[in-house]
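Fold this complex.
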Amino acid sequence: MKLKLLFSCLITAGIAVPALAQEPVDAAMVQKIREEGLSHSKVMETAFYLTDVSGPRLANSPGLKRAQNWAVNQLKTWGMANAKLEAWGKFGKGWEVQKNYAAITVPYYHAIIAIPKAWTPGTNGVIKGEVMLLKADSAAELEQYKGKLAGKIVIFDTKAPTERTWKADAARYTDEELAEMAKAAPAAPRRNAADPNAAQMATFRKLRAFRATLSQFLVDEKAGLVLSQARGTDGTVFTTNGASYADTAKAVAPELETSSEDYQRILRLLKGGQPVQLEADIKTQFITDDLQGYDVVAEIPGTDKKLKDQVVMIGGHLDSWHAATGATDNAAGSAVMLEAMRILKAINFKPKRTIRIALWSSEEQGLFGSRGYVANHFGDPKTMELKPEQAKLSAYYNLDNGTGKIRGVYLQGDSAAAPIFKAWLEPFKDLGATTLTISNTGGTDHLSFDAVGIPGFQFIQDAIDYGTRTHHSNQDTYDRLVEDDLKQAATIVASFVYHTSQRAEMIPRKALPKPQPAR
Amino acid sequence: MKLKLLFSCLITAGIAVPALAQEPVDAAMVQKIREEGLSHSKVMETAFYLTDVSGPRLANSPGLKRAQNWAVNQLKTWGMANAKLEAWGKFGKGWEVQKNYAAITVPYYHAIIAIPKAWTPGTNGVIKGEVMLLKADSAAELEQYKGKLAGKIVIFDTKAPTERTWKADAARYTDEELAEMAKAAPAAPRRNAADPNAAQMATFRKLRAFRATLSQFLVDEKAGLVLSQARGTDGTVFTTNGASYADTAKAVAPELETSSEDYQRILRLLKGGQPVQLEADIKTQFITDDLQGYDVVAEIPGTDKKLKDQVVMIGGHLDSWHAATGATDNAAGSAVMLEAMRILKAINFKPKRTIRIALWSSEEQGLFGSRGYVANHFGDPKTMELKPEQAKLSAYYNLDNGTGKIRGVYLQGDSAAAPIFKAWLEPFKDLGATTLTISNTGGTDHLSFDAVGIPGFQFIQDAIDYGTRTHHSNQDTYDRLVEDDLKQAATIVASFVYHTSQRAEMIPRKALPKPQPAR
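Structure:
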């Protein structure tokens, strides 16, 4: 999941549920799905292959390729039709870490916890030397370091000390929080009083410009290794990218995102007049043989003469960040969606409409896999020129908020879907899934569908320790998966897909978005 | 601090406070001490030198030597008398880590978080190879591995998965908890219904015997590297020793205490039929040139003709575990005690009784530094043969429960001290120090004094994240120190020391312990 955890607008207002005929629920089929999903689950096995066996799944990395190939083969093994990798467009370079070692050697030996920033180069063998504290907030202040950084290990002063956790890392939604979500009004336009004002934007732009200058300065001066402070504590390191994945990207210096404790220790020593020496050996590999991005796609074909050209889609992104195995972001969602497909196949369900799964790539860089797929199949969100398939896709369901069980659905402003989903959630009250909120949630792939007028939904999920520990961190590993929660989610998704595929009508749509004015 | 965090008996009963004349409190001096301790503190600077600058302070390691030498010099600089290292007896070998690198290389590259167990040897250069899963619960089951382990990397099956934290790491005592402590009855004899029964002891002995057999087997078979699972999550690794520090200790195999996440990943892969290869380069150094253990000692000499031969002692252990810089265990207590001395000197206090600080070593291996000192100066707790100095030591105050501020005092069963300490705590109500509990607390150096009939006290401290994150872990760094709490503690200790040194009488004593029967 990209950027924000939740973008939800918690204003008290009711969801209007029109007094229509009760939406039908197939109780016998729900029971079958529950039996398969809760008592014969394969979701943890699937998660094992996506995480432990495949490894980190950064966009276009070998780890992502392994997971994609495994998923295609597994979908075939389960009997899905048209299982394949489908190119969505040009992404850029793959990248992976092949050696990662760094340690303080003076004033004493201490191996540090640090992760190369994504798409940064390595150190070209072992680098050793004093750490230099670089103090500069402007291009002018950088000048004093000209000619002094070649081969050096560089650290910056920072005003961000290590924080201590006085709150629990992991939590579930309380009944009160869910009730608040259910009362939310449709999302207000995003730009409002809380958005950055002109002065803040100017500061931000200045900072960004200086960062670009600094980055170029470090390259020009041939700095040997740059240390930057990672978010996170207690050995948890949140990671980011340190350079563009584009094949035309500018060179950058090697950069290690360093645990706050190790970073602050080095900084305190240097500021206290104590020399620090470091040794490091970082090797990273760029993969440039195929710059295309791919999504995993597979289907259970529809069987109803009139409806089989219509489609229900489910998905989640399969790519992750590089410091761990992206268990909660988003092997969890991928495994749940794969499991939902498996459940429907295992109970030998022959849907009226076609059911399609897609596991996206390059979500972390900007929802690229789903955007590319939507552009290729459904239309252009800028011009709102739509393709025929757009009219045939009933709904897209996404999962990408971690390992937490499903507590309900973000209606994404589609109030006409409320009575339908209300009925479909009814059989899962005992599993804690009860809440509909008219709110939007952002940051992941349902937005790509919503942008071209297709009903696209993300489920409400318990956060567990997604925001505090796992989201983009070196701790996003299989250990953080909650088995019962993933089983519950797969069961509910399978039931939603079942009902969507059999429903007399497609899921009702919001008004079409307007074309975006040319800039 | 060794072993248990707290051994306190929370039974509801009152501390009898006899209706004696009010214990005098010197309000003007308390105000001076508060001013110096709260507004002119050097405690964080002291902590910086003990942690960041000195490094890990395992018993007899170079890091401990650095900290000891710094402390002696600093005490001299502050004008203390008789500042020195004092040998307490034979300890054993020093040890430190000089290289620590380990990474999974197959099925993909991933550097792991792992710490060499204390006093284990290194790998003698880079070791690479498949990880072997060794399954054996008995000497007989080990036989199958005979001739197969030479140079191999070995892992064991374990039933301890990674745990997730649903509770906050850090907390302070609540008023209710403190009230419960205040109501505690004198400690019951330690062996009671909750202690292990004969069957549990038999199981434990069997397990210990197998571990010894296994350890010898791994050495005999020349295993290249052993992985064991560390306690802790999220990148936090709690460390232990893997071999004896004795100069006569048996050889052991190199052993890495591995973060639960990395350990479980390797284990899941192997159990899932996926080969795992590792590369590691571990170098450790034994220091055998001086097997003696030393304590740091310094004094502010008494000035009263009749009382200057009497002594008030304060202390805490300076040694730590090796994976971090032992900030909360126990640079915190050491820095507070050093700061208390500094405060008293800074306000130019000339005590009636002599004030002495001692910073112990080898506490983590069994309170050896304080036990040795007590044996050399005060008496033998086994025979209860006492030396003359025993009668001259009024009280010993210890600090070793992390960075948390002082909330009161464990009276260690010395009810006659209650009215005295009650009066001395009175000026610190506003700083949260109010509670007296008749309870014992164990695990640290005041026990060595208590064992020979000298009033020995440990302060009640807020736990913060001592038990959950820092105590013996790789995360016990300067970052975890709470500045305001350390200032508060140093101020209160200085005031207690002041009043103890000036009091008309020494602190009242409990009945002398009985000699321990020969075994």
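Confidence is low (pLDDT under 50) at residues 3-14, 189-194 of chain B.
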